[in-house]
Amino acid sequence: MVVVVVVVAPGCLPRFSRCILLALLGVRKEYVTRVISHPQALAQCELILTKLSLNVAREVVDDTTGAAEFVAANNLCDSQCTRSGPLQDEHLANRIHDHSSIVTRFIILAREPIIPHTDRPVKMSNVFAHDKGTSVLFKVWVGSNEGWVDGGGSVRTRMGDGSVRMRDGSVEDEDGQGMGRQSGLHATVRPCVEGWFWASPARMGSNKYDDLTGEDVLEFFSQTVKPLKQNLAASKAEKPKQNQTRHKHKEQKQQAMVKAYLRYEPAAAFGVIVSVESNITYDSSGKHLLAPALEKVGVWHVRQGVCTKTLAPSPASRGPSLAVTSIASSTSSLIASGYADGSVRIWDSEKGTCETTLNGHKGAVTALRYNKLGSLLASGSKDNDIILWDVVGETGLYRLRGHRDQVTDLVFLDSGKKLVSSSKDKFLRVWDLETQHCMQIVSGHHSEIWSIDIDPEERFLVSGSADVELRFYTIKRGLVDGQPVSTIKGAENVNNGDSTTQNKWEVLKHFGEIQRQSKDRVSTVAFNKSGNLLACQVAGKTVEIFRMLDEAKAKHKAKRRLNRKKEKKSAKGEVEVMENGDTNHGTGEEGNALLVTAPDVFKLLHTVRASKKICSISFCPITPKNLLATLALSLNNNVLEFYSIESSGTTKTLGIELQGHRSDVRSVTLSSDNSLLMSTSHNAVKIWNPSTGSCLRTIDSGYGLCGLIIPDNKYARVETKGGYALVGTKDGTLEIIDIGSGTCLEVVEAHGGSVRSIAAVPNENGFVTGSADHDVKFWEYEVKQKSGQGTKCLTVSNVRTMKMNDDVLVVAVSPDAKYIAVALLDCTVKVFFADSLKFFLSLYGHKLPVLCMAISSDGDLIVTGSADKNLKIWGLDFGDCHKSIFAHADSVMAVQFVHNTHYMFSVGKDRLVKYWDADKFELLLTLEGHHADVWCLAISNRGDFIVTGSHDRSIRRWDRTEEPFFIEEEKEKRLEEMFESDLDNAFENRYVPKEEVPEEGAVALAGKKTQETVTATDLIIDAIDVAEVELNRIAEHQEEKTRGKAAEFQPNAIMLGLSPSDYVLRALSNVNTNDLEQTLLALPFPDALKIMSYLKDWTSNPDKVELVCRIATLLLQTHHHQLVTTPAARPMLTVLKDILYARIKACKDTLGFNLAAMDHLKQLMASRSDALFRDAKSKLLEIRAQHSKRLDARLETREEKRKKKKQKKSSDGHAWT
């Protein structure tokens, strides 16, 4: 066996390294993603690279000089290289060696001598070698530079630091100056095809080699110089061939760099019924329930219990945190959904398409509410702002600022003329939308206000917080003769002539409080469609249902309350002294009016208790017969429940729960033909169709940590239709599941601790399990016929057990079943021979336990993923670590190779799925989509799709497409995204103070600056420049034409045959309506003037009058001061003043004429038919509501008559006595 020890030092001298970081000019350290150098240099600089906080990958090359040339030739801005010795080049860090006293040594063990390559240069190193026994090690110089022999027979070689080493051990510089003498035997040995030159040991001024003589030294040189002289001539002739070989090697490198890969893209996501970040709501028909499912909105048919539609953003607009945070439905088919990035999307629920995207908020949208007509949408956000959106015009109207904390809920009042907002700053604010200012601030809450709502008749507003009571307010609708209009008789206090100007603007007036049953904070308060029920959902498992009494009952209850109060006083012997004696019996507390409060109007009816914590509630707008209401609940365990509310009690009518797990998905496993997918969770195993995402079977089980679908050939003798699967649980049991029948056949007590891993043994009838009880067990399949059963079934039996020293986390079997790898809690991986269980290799290097590992199909590589966030790629032949990659920002949870390749996928707690090339150690793709930790991963046999499971309860499928991509392009994309995010952050930090406190009731612009608005501004400026050049060309052509020298005019092909004016108008028309405001704000004043010069021509197009008016208004508001002080703009503004007013009046007249004609047609159709010209559905609902009110009134009158009869009988009996 040959033992080789390599010591790294600059110029191969035994002194400490002075390494420096090299990079291209202008590159900053924080943008560098990898460091390229020789492995020895990288090892010496490992500590300092870590101290510099460089999040870089280490990449190994043959030599440092070649690495620098490679970086410079390819203009790699994300790479650095290390080099030893002083240099004149630009460098980022000097003296990055670990320490002067540290010497790095590498020991390579090989059964055969390692022959240097001849097709490329070999790195110069110090080599200690011996070929016989355990004799004394000696030193031989092995270099890639050319060696020569001078006239005196001295052997010389040029070193990496420019010095020349002589045969006597002395060192000379390039000028021949002596540099000192070192002990040891030195000779130049040139790598050649024939093999290595082995030197005999000799004594050169040292007592270390006392057994050596001078004859040995002379014999060594006589044997060494002769072949060197012979090889000198041959090397000169071989130089052209070597150059060709080097060029060929470079071309191979370049070809490898441009290798194309196939892209993976998200294809399907299933398993999520309802997520916890958003509310649920019914659509206007009441047949469908809108439930958030992470980044999607699911439309569930309530009666059928199936998801009929999925409203998902386009793949181009997806982001890492694009989760639905709020949903609102209008009276039409439109649905609004708010997202975590602050965007609002308007959907058509019937078509399932996104109508528009509204960008304005800088934080997650927390509240959405339509007005009654559905023409306005109000949104509140975590950025403390409220934005009013024009749904028809698809644009933002204005932004309302004033709250000091996140907005939690919104409600329209007075036919959409006013808006009430609640916030975590403990205040309610009433906004006048016509004047766009805050007209009232309501205080009184002691904690954050989480929800508000009003009844359909707009009589009461209720607010819920963490306080123990619900607060109610009466709503003042308007003023009649200067006096406020009452919403309920007896509800107002009579002021003693104290009507001040403050009461004139008082919209909300405190009505009273109701004590709640639960101590948890209020999450949602909501009235039903008819307004007779109020639901209060708390942040727990209960919903309190209150019934709102009518006016007569409320007065009667208030009167009874006062009578009971009087009786208590009289019972205590207290005498009430009043001015009018006994004439005021039955009057209120004030003595002149009956005071009705909130407890008199609202009465607790029922309490709905769910099995898990409730996230959101919603009343169905359609009330079934014989029921008061239908209530939908979303629970935090991925379940939808529906309750029917009656006078006697509440009943659970439906639950949607089979389409997803109750908790996070811990493992996913594909069958051998990729037709079935098994997922495990804490209480159930589900079988899915991975292509459609439909749930086929649900089997109750223990806490499943790992699973395996047994290949068909393992149980060919068993009569089955669906197959079998194994599940390892946290309790240490193995569950054998019959997939066809969906039952658990047997529970085997396999281990004393949790079963962490299951691995099938290839080409054999068995599998291996690893557990926390330190055992690795080998199992075999058996077919047995149980007593009392006519058919045979599958069972397993333990055949071997291997005891380990620590908890077993993962087990893996090589494809040829030769090795078994076991990852232990002590951060190491032990590799054993599978047949004899003898120890083979120990892979150590991870700083935290290995959580996952995989072996490639050819058995050459094994990759391990650890809690230290790193992936390590090892060779399974010698156990050497090929590469350590900083892969994820958190623990690596699963890793797996694509079949028959060295490509691999890894997932981690950082929510990312990453695609790697294990040969090049390159990151190929980063797949974003999960909203929580990703636990597990499965890859199909053909590698055409992968499946991942996450803590967010979703199972996602990623399909391989036919779209090729290149590594360098992906790196450039990532760099561009990084630069763009840095620019955005710098802009925000520079111009927007973080602790900005808005003015009281301030109004601001609705939109926000995005990448789309910046791009649109650039396109408009380009269009203006092109149009201006074209106008100059036209003017020159006209001038030449007047002179008689003009040729035929050739228009610019870029303008698509449009005139300059129409070309600029086309660029403006392509801007999204919501982005037009921010796009025009970014235009410089000269370009704004040029646009205004085109407005006169654009007004002649009747279809663009609205757009032209918006552009003119926005530019005038933005550049008002500059326009006033610019003399050249005055004639243009004067012309626009006359033209725009006339065009707007013409459009207004046309709209008025059309509306009058439609009204006339409506009257004609109504006169010809017996029925009224209105929606039959709304008429039917109105008739039902009236009918229910009549029934309630009849029941109430009957009860009152019965009570009166009882009272009369009791009073008559008392008089008779």
Automatic annotation (TrEMBL):
Q: Where is the composition biased (Basic and acidic residues)?
A: 1191-1200
Name the Pfam families for this protein: Beta-prop_WDR3_1st (PF25173), Beta-prop_WDR3_2nd (PF25172), PDT (PF00800), Utp12 (PF04003)
InterPro entries assigned:
Preph_deHydtase, Quinoprotein_ADH-like_sf, SSU_processome_Utp12, TBC1_cilium_biogenesis, WD40/YVTN_repeat-like_dom_sf, WD40_PAC1, WD40_repeat_CS, WD40_repeat_dom_sf
Where are the stretches annotated Disordered?
152-184, 233-252, 557-590, 1191-1217
Q: Where in the cell is the protein located?
A: Nucleus, Nucleolus
Q: Spell out the residue ranges that the record assigns to WD repeats.
A: 317-357, 358-391, 400-441, 442-478, 658-698, 748-789, 843-884, 885-926, 927-959
Q: Tell me, what is one Gene Ontology molecular-function annotation carried by this entry?
A: snoRNA binding
Task: Please list every transmembrane segment annotated in the UniProt record, as residue ranges.
Answer: none
The UniProt record lists the Prephenate dehydratase domain at 1-111
Asked if Repeat is a keyword of the record, the answer is: yes
Q: Name one GO biological process term.
A: maturation of SSU-rRNA
Q: Which keywords accompany this UniProt record? A: Nucleus, Repeat, WD repeat
Q: Where is the composition biased (Basic residues)?
A: 557-569
Keyword Transferase on entry: no
* SUPFAM superfamilies per the UniProt record, alphabetical: Periplasmic binding protein-like II, Quinoprotein alcohol dehydrogenase-like, WD40 repeat-like
Q: Would you name any one GO CC term?
A: Pwp2p-containing subcomplex of 90S preribosome
Which PANTHER family does the record cross-reference, listed alphabetically?
WD REPEAT CONTAINING PROTEIN 3 WDR3, WD REPEAT-CONTAINING PROTEIN 3
UniProt family annotation: Belongs to the WD repeat WDR3/UTP12 family.
This protein is called Prephenate dehydratase domain-containing protein
| Phylogenetic classification of the source organism | Eukaryota, Viridiplantae, Streptophyta, Embryophyta, Tracheophyta
